[in-house]
């Protein structure tokens, strides 16, 4: 670079050119980086809308997830109305319609990149509904704008359609019809695969089991495994305290081992807990079942396969009647368990409970009595929860699944999904 005073203009031009080129390179890098980030975000984001409110009846709900089949040619958008809105929406898929178009992150309408058809599913009165989208080729990396329309309004709203969200105000159909809009990208990596989307036939019950109930069932089964482990620990305690009765004495006086309550006597927990390589095989072996409880082999089955048919009495044809009678069963004398009913006699003929807690000399024996009593009580409490509550929870899920199987509906008419 010439540094003399007569070359100032040349130096200025060179410096300006350098700055311009540098700025252009930085700008191009920024644009390239932004485009790359946008593509990465588009590739990862399957769902852009997590909640919705219908435009006229103002029912609220959430988008539970986006699911695809193995070939990525079928997608399902699972939605759920809030529990508070139960009974406020139609449970018939024939009363719904959908509209689909392409979009971008600025919400501009774009052309669809594949031919898409669809159907609408309503899972009975559970509050869940879904839109199934079928593409003639694997879904592209494209944001889709999906509008749902309820043609049957079960809620009166005096202000229907008067105050729409700003992004809906340019679409008069949201004021005229009860609608909501969801943005999704079924071609993104953030979708989840569902085996129940395979095949030509869409089965509402199979979908509802896989997408909704299977997780709830697993939570119940995990809780039952924990209950079995807790029961085993209390049975171990009881055995330990029974051994102490034969070992600990006060001046040669021992506890006469009391009669074990019938609700506990002979119980054992067979099998092993789960580890990194094997699943749990724990099982309660007992001769006593609570009148309102159950003792079926839940581990070998599932609510999808069904438990009810195998546990209903011979000749009983209605599972509703069977479950109702079971829930109202009389406890009976054998169901009542109280620590105060247990006799704690000593080998000298005295009653250990007569000594009270203040008699320090008998404390080694009263400690065994109190610990055993507490172990009995805790074991009985967990056993009741296991037999009555947990088993019933599994059966309630099966009943719910049967309800979806009988009342679920599909709308697959040619005009159920209009694309533009």
Task: Summarize, please.
By secondary structure, the chain is of the alpha+beta class. 34% of the residues lie in helices and 18% in strands.
Q: What would you note in describing this structure?
A:
The chain is α+β, with helices and mostly antiparallel strands. It is built from 6 helices and 14 strands. Strands 1, 2, 3, 6, 7, 10 and 13 form a 7-stranded mixed beta sheet that branches. Strands 4, 5, 8, 9 and 14 form a 5-stranded mixed beta sheet that branches. Strand 4 (96-103) and strand 5 (109-110) form a beta hairpin. Helix 3 (204-247) runs antiparallel to helix 6 (363-407). The radius of gyration is 34 Å and the shape is elongated.
């Amino acid at each position: 670079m010439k540094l003399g005073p007569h070359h100032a203009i040349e130096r200025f031009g060179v410096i300006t050119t350098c700055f311009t080129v540098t700025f252009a390179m930085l700008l191009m890098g920024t644009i390239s980086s932004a485009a790359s980030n946008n593509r990465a975000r588009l590739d990862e984001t399957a769902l852009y809308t997590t909640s919705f409110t219908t435009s006229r009846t103002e029912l609220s709900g959430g988008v539970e997830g986006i699911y695809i089949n193995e070939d990525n040619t079928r997608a399902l958008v699972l939605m759920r109305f809030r529990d508070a809105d139960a009974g406020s929406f139609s449970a018939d898929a024939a009363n719904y319609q959908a509209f689909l178009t392409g979009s971008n992150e600025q919400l501009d309408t774009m052309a669809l990149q594949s031919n898409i058809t669809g159907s609408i599913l309503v899972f009975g009165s559970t509050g869940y509904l879904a839109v199934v989208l079928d593409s003639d080729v694997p879904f592209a990396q494209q944001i889709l704008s999906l509008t749902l329309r309820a043609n049957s309004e079960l809620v009166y709203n005096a202000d229907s359609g008067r105050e729409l969200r700003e992004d809906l105000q340019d679409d008069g159909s949201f004021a005229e019809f009860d609608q909501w809009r969801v943005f999704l990208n079924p071609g993104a990596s953030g979708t989840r695969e569902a085996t129940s989307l395979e095949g030509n036939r869409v089965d509402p019950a199979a979908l509802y089991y896989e997408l909704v109930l299977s997780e709830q069932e697993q939570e119940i089964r995990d809780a039952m495994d924990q209950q079995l482990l807790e029961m085993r620990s209390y049975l171990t305690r009881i055995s330990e305290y029974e051994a102490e009765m034969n070992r600990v004495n006060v001046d040669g006086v021992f506890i006469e081992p009391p009669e074990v309550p019938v609700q506990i006597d002979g119980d054992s927990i067979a099998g092993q807990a789960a580890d990194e390589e094997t699943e749990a095989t724990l099982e309660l072996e007992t001769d006593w079942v609570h009148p309102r409880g159950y003792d079926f082999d839940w581990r070998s089955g599932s609510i999808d396969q069904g438990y009810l048919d195998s546990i209903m009495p011979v000749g009983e044809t209605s599972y509703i009647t069977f479950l109702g009678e079971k829930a109202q069963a009389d406890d009976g004398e054998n169901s009542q368990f109280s620590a105060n009913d247990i006799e704690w006699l000593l080998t000298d003929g005295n009653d250990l409970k007569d000594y009270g807690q203040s008699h320090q000399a008998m404390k080694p024996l009263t400690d065994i009595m109190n610990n055993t009593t507490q172990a009995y009580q805790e074991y009985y409490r967990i056993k009741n929860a296991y037999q009555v509550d947990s088993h019933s929870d599994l059966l309630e899920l099966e009943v719910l699944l049967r309800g979806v199987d009988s009342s679920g509906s599909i709308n697959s008419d040619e005009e159920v999904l209009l694309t533009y």
